[in-house]
Amino acid sequence: MPLTTRRRALTTLGAALAGSAALPAATAFAGERPYRPRPLWRAHAHNDYEHPRPLLDALDHRFGSVEADIHLVDGRLLVAHDPEDLDPARTLASLYLDPLAARVRAHHGRVYRGHRGSLQLLVDIKTEGASAYRELDRQLSRHRHLFTTYAHGRVHPGPVTVVVSGDRAARAPMEVQTVRRAFYDGRLADLGGPAPASFAPLISDNWTLNFTWRGVGAFPDAEREKLRALVGAAHARGQRMRFWATPDAPGPARDALWAELLAAGVDHLNTDDLAGLAAFLDARQD
Fold first, then answer.
1. Which end of the chain is more exposed for a tag (fewer CB within 10 A), N or C?
2. In 211-265, where does DSSP find H-type helix?
3. Cα–Cα distance between 103 and 42 in angstroms, integer?
4. Which residue has the higher pLDDT, 92 or 13?
5. What architecture is the 37-282 domain classified under in CATH?
């Protein structure tokens, strides 16, 4: 069997068995180098913490970005969307920071063994932003070599890149730091503004507030042009683009909208359906 055919078969197998503990991290035929399915860097796990195995389910599906909502409660960063769902055992450290540190150690400095690239950890602050960010900064400093770092005007890539979203009050303490291990999630209003990619490498916004199309029927030409212009403006500044509140129910509308996002160069596709987005992207990889 030709090598390319074997690799395609392994990719299909990996997608089918994603999440199975029995699937090895690398599979190879005798005499061949181990083949590892490529990470899906454009896949973003929205509300990742709501999955049965936060972080781990997304990693099993090879996602390149995960999102955790945090609340600062009595000096601790707890992970949940709403206050009534807070659990003292579900901390940012226990669900994300510590497991990522252990994984990177085990994989010799990488989140995905054999693949370069930085996993994005989007931290969405649900309480007052400045105080929550200061505690986040303190916790990130415990893993100095894990995170992409901005230091005195230069960005030093790491296995994990933390991007702070949510309450806008986090911006002020971040802007005055000469050394930080997190970056800022900008909005469309920030495009063309003073914040460079070294501060705001990501631009995120609500799809439904900027576009009327929901994947049904033809994408209006004016909206397609608008989308591509926004992505082009972000990319010209070295920034990545993401939209939330896109259709996420399985079906033709979702696939049509995802396809337009890919065609426009949008960098992260938002979903709660890990398997669905993984299958969609796998089918479109070269």
1. C
2. 221-236, 252-264
3. 21
4. 92
5. Alpha-Beta Barrel (3.20)
